[in-house]
Design goal:
This protein is of the alpha/beta class and about 350 residues long. It is built from 13 helices and 14 strands.
């Protein structure tokens, strides 16, 4: 997805116009991005390539990918319009050396499916901890100017109250619950970033992303926002696999991309930053009702089909009222609300 998509092009233009981002810091620099073929990574990669054109930055963007042929197909339009994009085939667990200097690292490679966390907890932990360790070592050896790790709101664990959450208000996690392999590993990776910042003076930090969606959601994406979007398009009732009581915030894809870059370039070493739109705070059930009412014109309903097996795949009921005051202080602000996140996702994709 690139300039031919009017919704995404508008997003790219807004991204490149972000005044809080010190674009000159990227002039002539090399940015190394993992997870670049995923939703957030591909959005950020496209944003950087577009900003490179608009601002004439002469930057180089290197994507670590598992399948270079597939990645080249995904970024065919960007490759046609830019010579700034390079690929390195490999994985975060098995990194190949990169012979040239790297100035900035953005580490977003991670499993994202709840079912995978339950079925492959060992692999979930290994990818997170070993992969992040490898990237941090590489950044240290390259004497990188900055490193940002893409963590998750799930790092907060189970929060039972609806109080606004700053980055210090971390809740309870039982490490013996298999599903918690994902948030536990996210916490450890944040700790690793703080440790490298302290021990090696590496400018490493992390961002805790609220659930993120918008243009670029794949047709086979099984996450809740994609399922809801498909139901709206196909005029099918939304079926929830839990009671939908959990409440948290969301953030639009390009808002997330600008938040990540703001934290990378302006954030303090060893810190973590919430990237969320507090105005989107709602329960899963409330979001489903909103989609049925506003996106499907009230022509579909919401049903609950929760079973003990389905509940295992999702976190216990929790409340993540994330506040982004620390990132706001760096000049970042979210721009797209929840209903418009769905509208822009549906206007730019075939779900």
């Amino acid at each position: 997805m690139w300039l031919e998509n009017p919704v995404f092009r508008e997003d790219l233009e807004r991204f490149a116009a972000q005044q809080q981002i010190p674009w000159e810091m990227l002039r002539g620099k090399t940015v190394y991005l993992t997870g670049g073929t995923g939703l957030i990574g591909s959005t950020l990669a496209s944003g950087l390539l577009y900003a490179n054109q608009v601002h004439g930055l002469d930057l180089t963007l290197v994507l670590l990918v598992r399948d270079e042929k597939r990645a080249r197909q995904q970024f065919a339009a960007q490759l046609r319009d830019s010579n700034a994009l390079q690929f390195v085939q490999g994985t975060v667990e098995w990194l190949f050396s990169y012979p040239r200097p790297i100035d900035y690292f953005i580490h977003g490679a991670s499993p994202t499916a709840s079912a995978y966390f339950v079925e492959r907890p060992v692999e979930t932990i290994s990818t997170a901890v070993n992969g992040t360790g490898n990237l941090l070592e590489m950044a240290k050896d390259k004497e990188a100017k900055g490193f940002v790790y893409l963590s998750s709101m799930e790092a907060y664990g189970t929060v039972r109250t609806e109080q606004p959450l700053s980055e210090e208000d971390v809740g309870y996690l039982n490490p013996l619950v298999v599903r918690n392999c994902y948030p536990e590993s996210k916490r450890m990776c944040e700790a690793m970033c703080a440790a490298y910042a302290s021990e090696y003076d590496l400018n490493a930090k992390s961002v805790r992303l609220a659930q993120t969606f918008g243009p670029g959601v794949a047709a086979n994406d099984r996450r809740v926002f994609a399922e809801f979007g498909r139901c709206a398009v196909n005029r099918q009732d939304i079926v929830l696999q839990t009671e939908g009581k959990s409440k948290h915030c969301y953030v639009y894809t390009m808002d997330a991309a600008s938040g990540i870059l703001t934290a990378l370039l302006l954030g303090e070493p060893g810190r973590t930053y919430n990237v969320a739109n507090p105005a989107t705070y709602s329960s899963i059930r409330e979001m489903a009702d909103m989609v049925a009412r506003e996106l499907a014109d009230g022509e579909i309903g919401v049903k609950i089909a929760a079973t003990e097996e389905s509940r295992r795949k999702y976190p216990a009921d929790h409340f993540l009222n994330l506040q982004s005051d620390a990132l706001n202080a760096l000049g970042w602000m979210p721009t797209v609300g929840l209903a418009d996140m769905f509208r822009r996702m549906l206007a730019s994709a075939e779900l």
